[in-house]
Specification:
The structure holds two protein chains of two kinds. By secondary structure, chain A is mainly beta. Chain A contains no helices and eleven strands. Helices cover 0% and strands 54% of the residues of chain A. In chain A, strands 2, 4, 5, 6, 9, 10 and 11 form a seven-stranded mixed sheet that branches. Chain A has a four-stranded antiparallel sheet with strand order 1-3-8-7, with no helix packed on it. Chain A starts with a strand and ends with a strand. In chain B, 0% of the residues lie in helices and 50% in strands. Chain B is built from no helices and eleven strands. Chain B has strands spanning 4-7, 10-13, 19-25, 33-38, 44-49, 53-54, 62-67, 70-75, 85-90, 97-98, 102-106. In chain B, strands 2, 4, 5, 6, 9, 10 and 11 form a seven-stranded mixed sheet that branches. Chain B has a four-stranded antiparallel sheet with strand order 1-3-8-7, with no helix packed on it. In chain B, a hairpin with a 6-residue loop joins strand 9 (85-90) and strand 10 (97-98). The relative contact order of chain B is 0.34. The chains are: A mainly beta, B mainly beta. The A-B interface holds A 37, 44-47, 49, 59-62, 93, 95, 97, 102, 104-105, 107-111, 113, 115-116 and B 1, 31-32, 34, 36, 38, 42-46, 49-50, 53, 55, 87, 89, 91, 94-101.
Chain lengths: 123, 107
């Protein structure tokens, strides 16, 4: 069974940093692209970014590129999201998700999602 | 960035009813369109990928169609478990973007 479990969330002061983790199990982690998506309270989903299997390609949404860093440790089956210079606008539930490639359409989509972890930025 | 406009934002409907949710892209996305369902507890799962392909395990009452800039998700006969939020997502260009969501509510 595929499982993705996020951790590391909580209350953080504005301007500080926080690192989220996503522990993966039930599949061969190093065979898949992985991504992060967030959802501010009462809002829709926002794509943060993605990382390929060997970390050689990492894509970000431009507005977050200077604040967030995605990484992975294939030996530990873990995905990370390092967040810096946090502001109130970063208060959200953060989801990690596995990406799967659909060859016929040359398209990726998220086929498994974690349950999410809450990050609250407040003084 | 490609903007994804979903409509309606809220959709009251009854059990057994057929409903359609629309998603319009600000430019052509060549069928690179996915649909997701989010339950009230936050659980998210894929429904449709590449416009019309049904994700494994998803009931056949769900279907997707569209081309160019206009896409839709149809549920042929609503079941109790279908009342949830629905999001479209484009994978045609970076950054991938989601629609604002459609809340499917029991009338």
């Amino acid at each position: 069974e595929v499982k993705l479990v996020e951790s590391g969330g909580g209350l953080v002061q504005p301007g500080r940093s926080l690192k989220l983790s996503c522990a993966a199990s039930g599949f061969s982690f190093n065979d898949y692209w992985m991504g992060w998506v967030r959802q501010a309270p009462g809002k829709g989903l926002e794509w943060i970014g993605e990382i390929n299997q060997d970390s050689s390609t990492i894509n970000y949404t431009p507005s977050l590129k200077d604040k967030f860093t995605i990484s992975r440790d294939n030996a530990q089956n873990t995905l990370y999201l390092q967040m810096s210079k946090l502001g109130s606008e970063d208060t959200a539930i953060y989801y990690c998700a596995r990406e799967i490639y659909y060859y016929s359409g040359d398209l990726y989509y998220f086929d498994y999602w974690g349950q999410g972890v809450m990050v609250t930025v407040s003084s | 960035d490609i903007q994804m406009t979903q409509s309606p934002s809220s959709l009251p409907a009854s059990l057994g009813e057929r409903v359609t949710i629309s998603c319009r892209a600000s430019q052509g996305i060549s069928n690179n369109l996915n649909w997701y369902q989010q339950k009230p507890d936050g659980t998210i799962k894929p429904l449709i990928y590449y416009t019309s392909n049904l994700q494994s395990g998803v009931p056949s009452r769900f279907s997707g169609s569209g081309s160019g800039t206009d896409y839709s998700l149809t549920i042929s006969s609503l079941e109790p478990e279908d009342f949830a939020m629905y999001y479209c997502q484009q994978d045609a260009s970076f950054p991938n973007t989601f629609g604002a969501g459609t809340k499917l509510e029991l009338k």
